[in-house]
Automatic annotation (TrEMBL):
Residues 488-515 form a coiled coil. This is DNA mismatch repair proteins mutS family domain-containing protein. Residues 1-109 are annotated as: Disordered. InterPro entries: DNA_mismatch_repair_MutS-lik_N, DNA_mismatch_repair_MutS/MSH, DNA_mismatch_repair_MutS_C, DNA_mismatch_repair_MutS_core, DNA_mismatch_repair_MutS_N, DNA_mismatch_repair_MutS_sf, DNA_mmatch_repair_MutS_con_dom, MutS. Residues 724-822 form the DNA mismatch repair proteins mutS family domain. Residues 365-705 form the DNA mismatch repair protein MutS core domain. It comes from Candolleomyces aberdarensis. One of its GO terms (molecular function) is mismatched DNA binding. One of its GO terms (cellular component) is nucleus. Pfam families: MutS_I (PF01624), MutS_II (PF05188), MutS_III (PF05192), MutS_V (PF00488).
Amino acid sequence: MLGRSAATIKSSNLRPYRCLYSTSPSRAKTQRVKKQVAELPQSYTLPSGERATPLPAFQDASNAPRTLKAKKKGSSKPSKAKLSESSLPEGNATLGHRGGPQPHDDTSAEVMNQPRTQLAREILENLRRFPHCLLLTRVGQFYESYFEQANEIASLLNIKLTSRKWGGRRVPMCGFPLLHLDRHLKTLVQHHKRFVAMCEEFPIYGSFGETGFERRVTRIVTPGTLIDEPFLNTLENNYLLSIHLVPEKSAIGLAWIDVSTGEFFSKESTLETLQDELVRIGPREVILDSSLRDSTSHPVLTYLKEENIFFSFSSSQGEDESSQRSEPEAAAVSMLSAYLQKILMGNAPRLDNPYHETDSTKMQVDAHTIKSLEIREASYEGGTTGSPSISFAEIEGWQSTVAFFSKRTHLRADLIEHLKQVGDISRIVQRFTLKRGDVSDLLSVKKTIDLWGQIIKRLELEKDLEKRKRTKRDWEHIDLLRKRIRTLEILSNRIQSALADANDQESESVEEEEQKALVLQESTPLMENSVKWTIKPSFSRPISALHSSLHDLYTRKDDLECRLRTEYNAPSLTLRASPSQGMHIHIAKPRKDSKNIDTDSSFTTISESASTKSYFYREWSELGTTIARTTALLAQEEKQAFETLREEVVSNAVLLRSNSTTIDEIDVAIGFAVLAEELKFVRPTITEERLYHVVNGRHPSVEMGLMNSGRIFTPNTIEMTPSSNMHIITGPNMAGKSTVLRQTALIAVLAQVGSFVPADAATIGLIDKLFTRIGAKDDLFRDRSTFMVEMLETADILRRATSRSLVSLFPNKLILKDGFLTVD
């Protein structure tokens, strides 16, 4: 019989004996029952399905060296023995220093002794690898931070700062539950603009039922690399912009991408127009070449700091192979690609060729104009393909599509119902490209593909109904859109053959289902065939065979359980499994149902309490092990099937994104048509002549605001020709001068994005650049008065404007006399 001191040792290795508890009916007090090693089963089956064997040798703790704790002065009680560090198995938590001089309270990670736990070693290594990031380490159901960073994170998140002992020293730490990650990540990344390194833990199953963990940094979260976080605004783009500056030249290269959707653009620009590009693109993060890290006076850095735009530094790796891009543009693309590889690590997407932008195809709108016209960020800033066009063919195509839907109310209503159910394919495909996503995303892909088919069929039905009265011109642009939508029935059928109906699916990933299948909960019946499998058995032969085997095993399990209940007259008997006890027989009413079982030598008691009793039974242990292994194999096959489906979606990413873009165009055209019908917009005429003639034009936003208060907007007629191309508007305060200026510019923008305009009639010459200045302010930081700011902006307009530009100026408190006095 082993000594009493051995019972106090907590070791992760297999124990040679177990202390059991039982209550006798004649005694209310719980008594301890000790068993000999020989009385225990010779083999033990772990929850993972592996069979454990006894250790070849066991070091009795009664013979281990002891360190005696000093007795208190005047105490007559004997001192308690405590194990020294040398008696602990390697890898267990070490004991703190006892007695002697205590180390000084230094919380610095650098002055610590070599860490004695795996967690401490991993944290210190990650802090060295990512010194520019705040490190969040997953520990169970918490994310924790240690050492100096704990002070900063606790302050930023307004959470409690505490400490823990490592190596005999107190180090600061803080943490928060796993469920609060999104909220705190939003605070750190979006509000405080910090880099956050996410260190996740991955279970490692040992040979003796131990569950260790491997921790590694899987991703660095930055403001410009958000993917599918709940706090990401899906109604606007989250652009990451790289800027490559050419030394001693004004040319610069721009490349920007929305990591959450995969939209990728590039352009060559100049330092002079960089401010306009930044306002138009609206990046959440800007990347600059690392050569500017030590610079303090560069104009780009100065502007980014003044506008509070978050920026970081990176270096380009390799050369861009595209010959269609200029050298600065190619360098910007290369730098952006290298940065994504570093931040997203092994999950960085393979970047397609970016869409090349040129000023020759779009109306140029500078930063001041965007702000002066009060164009919302969600609908314009951050947009690219929706910029006003200067192509007659493109504008004509949009206007024809809007006119088509404005005349067909019933078709428009049917398509709107379909469009409401279409998923955001661009984001889903990007999640799959980044090796993320779950089963619900697959179902959304299938549903969206089916909805695309229904949209095509509805358009074809409408065309057949108009067979007699339709004209070729009416359907010309709609037919072009319809032909651009490629059918992906093979992919849809593939997903349909693999997944159950969407109503029967849980929004859980296959990885989560696998974890549920492998992790056995204590005190719950095992193998009730209640696992929610996501892949149909008919998807593949291995999955079908495993489902069949698992069904047979469940049947054997039910038969065994029924037989044991009947044979031993134990109605409360159930077959269970848990991480601590493995496969065991559970008796819920031991006083009544365990009498016959206790007399059978094939049952070995492994635990006992006042209300329950558990036994080891070889037949159930072997059967349960087989079920656990089969369940794990099936979970692995499901994971592999999901990976196969995910790769198939990624392989069709180009077609999926192309279809999504076409459907988006139809959606926008229908929106323009609804707006035109509700607010009485008209189709403008776009001409090459230099004129602007709008009859009874209205400011759309002001008109809607007046309508909500029951008032009517007073329209304005503006006519400008080559012989009268400058108008001066005068009037008292609140007369509507700035409204007319904004209205004139907004109507030009609406006309060249392909929308109808708020007027009775409109003929507008093509405008290549738009400048609007309304209400300048003092620039005290640069020591500039209001008048100086206005003069500088006017000089900039005169330098950049062409004969086809539209300019609207509204000076602030400037009269003729003051102007003459200033000039004199």
